[in-house]
Amino acid sequence: MPTDTAILELETLTAEQAIAQLAVRSPLIHCITNTVVQNFTANLLLATGAIPAMIIDPSECQEFAAVADGLLLNVGTLHHEHCPTYYHAAENANRFAKPWVLDPVAVGGLTLRTEFCRKLLALRPTVIRGNASEISVLAGGAATGRGPETQMSTEQALAAAQQLATHAESIVVITGEYDLITDGQRTFKVSGGSALATRVTGAGCALSALCAAFATLGGDRLINVASACWMMSRAAEYAVQHAVGPGTFAMHLLDGFAQLREAP
Known about the structure:
The protein is α/β, with parallel strands linked by helices. The protein is 48% helix and 14% strand.
């Protein structure tokens, strides 16, 4: 997939309109996520105006699919017993035409999650959010990361992301020193944020949940998902201005989301 097409910058007003729409819509997001980040993810969604639901029982997941507005699948603490729950949750999201996000944490480094995430690709995730290494592996490349870390730059993974987006009919988000959001034809770039976000467990996982929330909005879904990345970057910039270290950064990151949601 060529990478010489123009990379678009997301306009501030466009992102702010999506944020305002999210606060009004207040989507209910079903988060099947890793155990490390459940509390942080739920609090971040609440700070934006979305509503989190951390339901994991298989029977309740099936029932809840008709109620939820969107779904997050994050494989960070995947166990083989969880795989049917994840898979059927994605099937039910498709059945009820609900957008769902795949966060392929550390694919490429471990066999179970790598093979399972490739199986989930057949269900056509609405959004796939990962770092450069994770996206490259899902597109068919070799593993270059160490767990959830990556040795690739965002730019190096763009061709793989465009290929993956086209093949899976998904929006692909590469997060790193800046974010690239592509549907295989158009690509948006979101800059900013803070390096302190990499020192806080769950910032990327929470962004995936935020992508699920923004994917429920009306209008241009690619722009809406890019707006989720924009909101994260601006909230991180707010947080770093008030923090003295990673602990207070996490606290002020939530404040940053609330400030953006409440902005006139």
